[in-house]
Amino acid sequence: MRVVALALPLILAGCMFGGDDRPAPAPIRPRASGPVTLNGPTPRETQQCFADLSREHVRYSGLPDRDFGGGCVVTGAVQLLDIGVPVTGLKSMKCGLARNFTAWVRFAVAPAARQMLGSDLVKVETYGTYSCRGIIGNAAASAARMSEHGLANAVDVSGFVLADGRRITIERDWRTGDQQVRAFLETIHGSACKRFATVLSPDYNAAHYNHLHLDMGRGPFCR
Ligand SMILES: [Zn+2]
Q1: Distance 148 CA to ligand 1 centre (A)
Q2: Which residues of the chain, if any, have pLDDT below 70?
Q3: Distance from residue 209's CA to the centre of ligand 1 (Å)
Q4: How far, in Å, is the centroid of ligand 1 from the Cα of 205?
Q5: Residue 15: burial class (beta carbons within 10 Å; 0-12, 13-18, 19+)
Q6: Which of 34, 170, 177, 186 is deepest in the core (most CB within 10 A)?
């Protein structure tokens, strides 16, 4: 119990600020000379992930490994270009996140829209992926408690557009009285919890009132 009690705040710190677009994060001093491109070998796991994306007919471009300073380091990342459904706001994503996000959209969100709401999913809206954010306060702990967004290992999903013109947003519809929409959101949230390490919804805290934070960092944590 003691171990769990100690470990949990660390997990939450990473998520709290990762998904939180509201309170101003601690300023991170960018490297004065700009990002540094890293030239290490591509790990086998990353190569396998790129191959998985290609096999799944995902269009993407690989991005160079970069150290932005302040603990924000992005390695093994891609820019998703076409996963079958348009997605707004995506910037660089670590490949494993991109792979799981693509599978979630294709095999959870799209089928749930069709089966539960009777209309095809035509767009996913996000507030983005990479963002070099730290945490408020303790600078010494900032590296260990870096937001997963600072590693391009998180995405904030804000809404879904259907072929019939309906737009479902986390902000407006998370606690809607519409039972079908509620069931849809519960289903895709539950699926996200099986596919990502950490999932934070409006049920987690007020900072997440308008999006689902999905990341491949520490976990499992599903709220
Ligand atoms: Zn987030």
Answers
A1: 8
A2: 1-31, 134-145
A3: 11
A4: 12
A5: buried
A6: 170
> Is residue 126 within a helix (H) or strand (E), and if so which, with residue range?
strand 121-128
For the stretch 75-134, pLDDT in tens is 999 999 999 999 999 999 999 999 999 999 999 999 999 999 999 999 999 999 999 976
Distance 70 CA to ligand 1 centre (A): 18
Domain boundaries, the chain: 42-222
What's the gap in Å between 130 CA and the centre of ligand 1? 9
Tally of residues, the chain: 223
**Cβ-Cβ contacts under 8 Å for 63 (sequence gap 6 or more):** 74, 77, 78, 79, 92
**From the CA of 222, how far away is ligand 1's center (Å)?**
13
The pair of three-digit structure tokens given for residue 53, joined into one six-digit string: 């994306």
Report CA Rg, the chain.
Answer: 18
181 CA → ligand 1 middle, Å: 23
